[in-house]
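Handoff note, outgoing to incoming analyst
You'll be picking up this chain. Sequence as last confirmed:
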Amino acid sequence: MFKGLIGKKIGMTQIFDDAGAAVPVTLIEAGPCYVTQVRTPEKEGYASVQLGFVEIKPKRLTGGQLGHLKRNNLPPLRFLREFRSESADLKEGDKVDVSAFAVGERVDIQGTSKGKGFQGGVRRYHFRGGPKTHGQSDRHRAPGSRSSGTTPGRVYKGSRGAGHMGDDQITAQNLKVVLVDTERNLLGVCGSVPGARGNLVLIREARKQ
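Most recent structure output, in case you need it:
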């Protein structure tokens, strides 16, 4: 059975388990999603399911995008994402919602982390910084030596240093599903999920169960 959804991160809260312990929970508005295309190894060379999420005004899509969706009489959808999966139980035009998941299952959630802008080595890579005594005055958060002198006489590619931080694709793996609300299309998972509130996330069945 195909297990995949596109969702929007709502935020974090907590629920209490049977023992009375507080469990940190991230709430996700997951689906409903429409199957916009099913790719097969015979036709496209690989198997996948393309889902669409969030209905919008038709004028916000190009003609090609509208034509792609009108093949199956689907509404204009803002987000289209592909899930690598061989699924014989889905057809183009089908609807997928949170009922595909159950409490206790494990999922992988992919999102884009918060952007932090240009940061120094201390914040970006947890460098120790320079000494705070013995006469130095401006080396508290300096990265130190970047390389050696004559040989190689340059900085190696991939060396850690200051630069753009965050705004990366992150996957939180093996999160436990603790809440499934089909009426409000809510999915609750134990733990944190990449990104800020309102970010788009992809929910898949966990690979490392």
